[in-house]
Design goal:
alpha/beta, five-stranded parallel β-sheet, 6 helices, about 35% helix
Length: about 140
């Protein structure tokens, strides 16, 4: 067996078109895509007590059902660095709302010869923005 393992990570609280585009782009970079998914406790620490909107089991099920996703692994830390040491992807992907130099996990992935790739951001698509529109009644 062989091939290029690609991984990405995040909360994926309300999966939207930006997530779908990012996951599809990530999958095209290799032979399989592993999504490192923040568990409920880590989402709360990162996003606040009102989050996640969807529980981890539901978020994992939605992600696993996507044709671009080959596996989903939950992690409870604030960053997926420990799970990345187990998965050891060849490529770590983040969306264009990140700058390569700010990706904390880049050094971890580089330690075994992997690389970090930033894929284009889909403007106007964010979970936080969607939640704000729901609460504000803006369409």
């Amino acid at each position: 067996m062989g091939g290029t393992v690609v991984a990405t990570g995040g909360c994926f609280d309300l999966v939207h078109a930006g997530h779908i585009a990012m996951l599809a782009q990530a999958r095209r970079l290799g032979d399989c895509l592993v999504v490192c998914l923040n568990d409920d406790d880590s989402v709360r620490r990162l996003k606040g007590e009102a989050r996640p909107v969807m529980p981890e089991r539901d978020r994992a099920l939605v992600l696993a059902s996507l044709s671009s996703v080959d596996a989903v692994v939950l992690f409870g830390e604030d960053t997926p660095e420990e799970i990345l040491k187990v998965v050891r992807p060849d490529i770590w992907v983040k969306g264009g709302d990140y700058r390569a130099e700010d990706v904390v996990e880049a050094g971890t992935v580089a330690a075994w010869g992997g690389r970090t790739v930033i894929v284009p951001y889909v403007e106007g698509r964010s979970t936080t923005g969607t939640i704000a529109r729901i609460h504000g009644g803006v369409s």
